[in-house]
Amino acid sequence: MPRIALIQHQCDATPEHNLDKILSRLQQVAEQGAQIVLLQELHNSLYFCQQEHPRYFDLAETIPGPSTETLGKIAREHNMVIVSSLFEKRAPGLYHNTAVVLDADGSIAGEYRKMHIPDDPGYYEKYYFTPGDLGFNPIQTRYGKLGVLVCWDQWYPEAARIMALKGADILLYPTAIGYEPSDSDTEKQRQRQAWINIQLSHAIANNLPLASCNRTGTESDAGNNINFWGSSFICDQQGDILSQAEIAAEQILYVDIDFKHTETVRRAWPYLRDRRIDAYNDLLKRYCDGAIED
């Protein structure tokens, strides 16, 4: 029954400051016995995708690289798994939004490159990131098999399902999402609740615990600004929220998760048994035009 920790915090414009904050929090969660630690999306910098500018490519780094070396040392020192989120420079002109899992011995257990890349006002990620090419594959670590996805991936049930079908023990989402300033208060709350609901549905539909670690605070860039809504949470295999952070606070969450409980839940709710895999071919289409055939 590993102890999961989520570190929700505000970022500033200096990567060194952000990394120092993360290292301090990692020391803190290690003292509380955390074995799997989830960091938020692109935790080393401000969320630079609010605008398109070539200077931000300078924030990218190689994998392995400085961040994986630093985080790997912390992981090894405290025998804990760290799920990080980095701006990967794969080659000149080729970049990814990449989650890297450092195992408890400090080695890189695996990587996941964000598959679904948004392109919306304030979230111009297609300018920076090439869609992932590593597929949906859980990463085996000392404390479990981690189904790591990233932010916009959390709206797609197909991604969560494939991770479940490949044996993930838990779904993990590093995240950066917030309010559009021009929206009404009602619309802001509707969007935040939809974000929570879609992830709870993934947990329920796949009988898996789930953890989502979001940014908090307001980040401004060239007249744009996003008020990240925090609200990081951990839920169990039936979608019950076990711990949740506040909207506007730096906060650490801890939950002891029983991965073995998945077996108990799946015996009562055998979704995988009853899937009609013979009837799902249309999922491979972009859209099903025309009349439904018998």
CATH architecture: 4-Layer Sandwich
Shape: globular
CATH fold naming: Nitrilase/N-carbamoyl-D-aminoacid amidohydrolase
Give the helix proportion (percent range).
10-25%
Radius of gyration: 19 Å
Could you give the order of strands across the largest sheet? 5-4-3-2-1-17
Poorly predicted residue ranges? none
Q: How far is it from the N-terminal to the C-terminal residue, by CA?
A: 48 Å
Describe the structure.
- The protein has 294 residues and is an alpha+beta fold.
- It has one domain: Carbon-nitrogen hydrolase (Nitrilase/N-carbamoyl-D-aminoacid amidohydrolase), CATH 3.60.110.10.
- 25% of the residues lie in helices and 29% in strands.
- The chain is built from six helices and 17 strands.
- The chain has helices spanning 15-31, 66-78, 157-165, 185-206, 261-268, 271-274, and strands at residues 3-8, 36-39, 81-91, 94-102, 108-113, 119-120, 123-124, 139-141, 144-148, 170-174, 178-179, 210-213, 216-221, 224-229, 233-235, 241-244, 251-256.
- The strands form four sheets. It has a six-stranded mixed β-sheet. The protein has a six-stranded mixed β-sheet with strand order 8-9-10-12-15-16, with helices on one face.
- Strand 6 and strand 7 form a beta hairpin.
- Helix 3 runs parallel beside helix 4.
- The radius of gyration is 19 Å and the shape is globular.
- The mean pLDDT is 96.
